[in-house]
């Protein structure tokens, strides 16, 4: 099964919606295998967003993500990469449907609360960038038989 990298950005942390976001992934049936809070270094942020380094908003993006606490997480489950992106919504919160995280909690593209990996390969890159192998926990929730047939 797949793993994806999810990060609640400093706006989501300051607004006190981390618990709501975690609850959505738990309620869906996905499994939390890694979690920590940190203020990302500029080096980590630039590496994380390296695909966007030519964009005009790159500096603002790095300044913002390093401006406060981030909750970095790894979630596991069937098709979790693409499904988490659906649960998150569009990059622009105003284009995100109600019921999605950005649709419910955000207005501005530069304050869109959460990051989610955009593909399986990206997820693998991001997980190894943000976590050491020993920080990830393989476990089998007793609920699994009620979530997967
Ligand atoms: P992430 O999950 O954070 O990676 O968002 P995304 O995959 O939906 O979008 P993308 O990777 O293209 O951009 C990364 C982040 O850059 C977004 O989440 C936005 O916060 C920011 N961003 C993207 N496009 C714009 C833009 O046109 N203007 C501004 N100011 N910020 C942008
Ligand atoms: Mg992205």
Automatic annotation (TrEMBL):
It comes from the Eukaryota. One of its GO terms (biological process) is GTP biosynthetic process. Residues 1-138 form the Nucleoside diphosphate kinase-like domain. The active site is at residue 115. ATP binds at residues 9, 57, 85, 91, 102, 112. Keywords: ATP-binding, Kinase, Nucleotide-binding, Transferase. GO terms for molecular function: ATP binding; nucleoside diphosphate kinase activity. It catalyses: a 2'-deoxyribonucleoside 5'-diphosphate + ATP = a 2'-deoxyribonucleoside 5'-triphosphate + ADP. Pfam families: NDK (PF00334). Its EC number is 2.7.4.6. The keyword ATP-binding applies. Its cofactor is Mg(2+). Belongs to the NDK family. This is Nucleoside diphosphate kinase. It comes from Gracilariopsis chorda.
